[in-house]
Amino acid sequence: MLKFFSSVSELGILGHRMIVNAMVNTQITIGTHDGVFHCDEALGCFLLTRLPDYRDAKIIRTRDPVKLSGCDLVLDVGGVFDAASHRYDHHQRVSECSDLMKSMRLITAFQLQTEYRNVGGKVKALNPTWNSEECPEQDALFSSAMKRVGDEFVSSVKFIAKTLKLSETQIQKAVSERKTTHPSGALMEITDDPVDAWKYFLADFENKLDVEGSIKFIIQKDVGRRCWKITTVPTELPHGGTQRVPFPSAWRGMRDEDFRTISGLKSALNVDFANRSAWCESREGDCDIIRSFNTVEMVFGENYFFADGVLEPCGMLSFFVNG
């Protein structure tokens, strides 16, 4: 053990308290607040206990400044953000925060609510209710919260590593070849992308090709439903903003015969309630949806026009793509 601490450069994030603890064979401690627990400190503690230096750390939940002062690392409590002393709270006034903290928007751990809004609710639900007749052990409940948010985090990392990364090359190819789907380049076809990974890469690839905002719609086969899906691209990828070209407002939530009647499309199936995705029986049906727009000039620009209900790009006779 002493040999391990023989060089300061080998200590990494370990500070003076950790050296002392190791020399006297005491347990490393992580301090966080007691009472109602939340997603941020649960995830922060989970991540720390995945590091070799904190793998066997004891988590102390308290707001007592004296007890916290003896902890090797403190997060989400204490009113101090100082990496040198391993204090990571985010509840200060903005004027008291470092530039780093301001740029982080005062977060302790990863802001999972942005991408996985239900995680915070799942963690919060593990707290005892105000009228609970039983008095469950809070530390045990917090351990359950750590496991729950940790499982979600690990699952998300695996998703990114295995699913999104594998889709990146395919999506880059689809962006480059978008004009083979339609000469305007406003319609892009994606194959084998059940998780809509295109939302994470589209803006970057558009930027590289200097065609920012040009792709308005994504068509793809919905294997689960055995039909075709068309999605309007959001203005703020991956999920935010409005749509670059929205579906007609009257389509929102329509389905089956009602949707076919209002759209005039024989193969139409339904539109989601967010009015962002629609489903058709065939690939040609997806193309028909775009052709049905009265505001098609917003999509394809002045070089494309409607003639007898058919979108004709620069003299080409058909908008259909063989399926």
Please, could you describe this protein's structure?
It contains eleven helices and 14 strands. The chain is of the alpha/beta class. The strands form four sheets. It has a five-stranded mixed β-sheet, with helices on one face. A hairpin with a 3-residue loop joins strand 9 (234-236) and strand 10. Helix 2 (39-48) crosses helix 6 (138-176) and helix 5 (117-124) packs antiparallel against helix 6. It is elongated, with a radius of gyration of 27 Å.
Question: Helices and strands in order, then pairings?
Answer:
Blueprint: H1 16-23, E1 29-32, H2 39-48, E2 58-61, H3 65-69, E3 73-75, E4 81-82, E5 87-88, H4 99-103, H5 117-124, H6 138-176, H7 178-181, E6 187-190, H8 198-208, E7 217-222, E8 227-232, E9 234-236, E10 240-243, H9 256-263, E11 268-271, E12 277-280, H10 283-291, H11 296-300, E13 304-307, E14 310-313
Parallel strand pairs: 1-2, 1-3, 3-5, 6-7
Antiparallel strand pairs: 4-5, 7-8, 8-12, 9-10, 11-12, 13-14
Helix pairs in contact: 2-6, 5-6, 6-8
Descriptors:
MYG1_exonuclease, 323 residues, alpha/beta, five-stranded mixed beta sheet, 2 domains
Write a short abstract of this structure:
With 323 residues, the protein is α/β, with parallel strands linked by helices. The protein has helices at 16-23, 39-48, 65-69, 99-103, 117-124, 138-176, 178-181, 198-208, 256-263, 283-291, 296-300, and strands at 29-32, 58-61, 73-75, 81-82, 87-88, 187-190, 217-222, 227-232, 234-236, 240-243, 268-271, 277-280, 304-307, 310-313.
Whole-Å distance between the termini? 67 Å
- Average pLDDT, rounded to a whole number, is 76
The ordered H/E elements are HEHEHEEEHHHHEHEEEEHEEHHEE
Number of strands: 14
User: Could you give a short account of the major beta sheet?
Assistant: 5 strands, mixed
Low-confidence blocks of residues: 1-14, 101-116, 294-323
Helix vs. strand class: alpha/beta
The number of distinct structural domains comes to: 2
What's the total helix number? Answer: 11
User: How much of the polypeptide forms β-strand, as a percent range?
Assistant: 15-25%
Indicate the radius of gyration in whole angstroms.
Answer: 27 Å
**Overall morphology:** elongated
Strand order of the largest sheet: 2-1-3-5-4
